[in-house]
Design brief:
Layout (H helix, E strand, L loop, with lengths): L13 H26 L3 H7 L2 H8 L3 H29 L1 H18 L5 H29 L4 H30 L2 H6 L2 H15 L21 H30 L4 H28 L4 H20 L5 H11 L2 H11 L4 H33 L3 H21 L6
Helix pairs in contact: 1-6, 1-7, 1-9, 2-7, 4-5, 4-6, 4-15, 5-6, 5-9, 6-14, 6-15, 7-11, 7-14, 10-11, 10-14, 10-15, 10-16, 11-13, 11-14, 12-13, 12-16, 14-15, 15-16
């Protein structure tokens, strides 16, 4: 496997070389570990949403507590995104991801062992683990699957989307079958352990667990305009997605759509992202530039937002389809992070920067959207702001998709 080496004279690290050996000797198992890591990124969050009302009543928790619980994942993803590069440099990529998957499994168990405080602490631990994998798995894809970045990113993001849907849909039946929300929620730890085992087996023979020093190639990207373009692209698409997932049913219901249909339309939005996320990254990665694909999905998503602004009740199915296709830009955001960096060190730094600041925008966006609704008494101003975010995503994405390096 050939890797492009940064021209600035930074030598490859021992870890970079060993990653190449892993890709040659155990690529299939490593690919399975990457896909399992992707599948585990969302059930920890979506499983709670499907039983939140029963969980809150059983624990005697307040609505404020429930609001904090649903806000924590976005905040953890933001903080974890900024911390992950430093942790990876100190412990090594393999050990950092091992610790992340262990934290995910431990957090899923911890949150069902007690009362409201255990749920909050367990959620922080689990989402902290997810946050690290958010940043570091794209580095694995870059290092170990350099000739198949698009394919692996597609598999990874499709697994992520599937995990989100399965976590939400399967938890209520599990609650019925297992006799309560606690065993239903803790059952997702089995998947986290499976990902941890697959990762350990795939990498144990190929990568040193804890290098005694960093890779020597770290540099700050805060003054690199292209890095901010990638960050802006990731942040805008994340903000758009989180607002849609949090508020679309309410927007549609206020426009006259009944509750059942609004819920189905939100499910359709999530479902549409699956095939698109699988196909588009591979297509986009074949060319030097990804700008055209990014603009295409951005325009489609913006059209869905515009439809909600002008005539939300005219064709809610069409607006939902457009939004679902547009939200598939997430997969292209991950491809862009991988392709705009020359080596593992820059991939880690760019992934941490884009996802750290990006998920901060995702955490603030839904809150600001709801606040504007309360202040104005209507959805027009919040939706217009969301349209501005969608247009900004197109602009940032166009720049981020150009074939250059940070």
């Amino acid at each position: 496997m050939q890797r492009e080496v940064a021209p600035r004279g930074v030598p490859e690290s021992v870890e970079d070389t060993r990653w190449t050996n892993v890709a040659l000797g155990g690529g299939l198992l490593l690919a399975v570990a990457v896909v399992l890591a992707g599948f585990n990124r969302r059930p920890a969050v979506t499983s709670v949403g499907s039983v939140l009302d029963e969980l809150r009543v059983d624990l005697g928790a307040s609505v404020t507590w429930a609001g904090l619980l649903t806000t924590l994942p976005g905040l953890c993803f933001a903080v974890g995104g900024l911390v992950a590069p430093r942790l990876s440099r100190r412990t090594g990529l393999r050990s950092a991801i091992t610790a992340a998957l262990f934290a995910l499994a431990a957090g899923l168990v911890l949150r069902v062992l007690g009362g409201p405080s255990f749920v909050l602490v367990g959620t922080v631990v689990a989402c902290g683990g997810i946050a690290l994998t958010n940043v570091l798995v794209p580095v694995v894809v870059k290092a170990s699957f350099a000739t198949k970045v698009g394919l692996m990113t597609g598999l990874y993001t499709a697994a992520l989307q599937a995990g989100a849907a399965v976590g939400s849909a399967a938890t209520p039946p599990l609650e019925t079958a297992l006799g309560g929300w606690r065993p239903a929620l803790v059952s997702w730890a089995v998947l986290a352990v499976a990902a941890l085992v697959a990762w350990w087996v795939a990498t144990n023979a190929g990568i040193p667990g804890a290098p005694t020093e960093g890779d020597g190639g770290h540099r700050s990207l805060l003054r690199v305009p292209l890095a901010w373009a990638v960050t802006g692209f990731f942040g805008c698409q994340a903000c758009l997605a989180y607002v849609v997932m949090g508020w679309l049913p309410q927007v549609l219901m206020d426009a006259g759509v009944d509750r059942a249909e609004a819920g189905l339309l939100l499910g359709l939005v999530s479902l549409l992202a699956l095939p698109v996320s699988f196909v588009f990254p591979a297509l986009a990665a074949r060319g030097g530039s990804q700008s055209g694909w990014i603009v295409l999905l951005g325009v489609v998503g913006a059209a869905g937002v515009l439809g909600l602004v002008l005539a939300p009740s005219a064709s809610p199915l069409l607006w939902s389809v457009l939004l679902g296709l547009g939200m598939s830009a997430f997969s292209l955001a991950l491809v862009t992070i991988t392709l705009r960096a020359r080596d593992n060190a820059d991939t880690t730094a760019l992934s941490g920067m884009a996802q750290g600041f990006g998920y901060l925008a995702a955490a603030v966006g839904p809150f600001l959207f709801g606040l504007l609704r309360d202040v104005t008494g209507a959805w027009t101003i919040p939706l217009l702001l969301l349209l501005v975010v969608a247009l900004a995503q197109i602009g940032f994405g166009y720049v981020a998709g150009k074939p250059r390096y940070v």
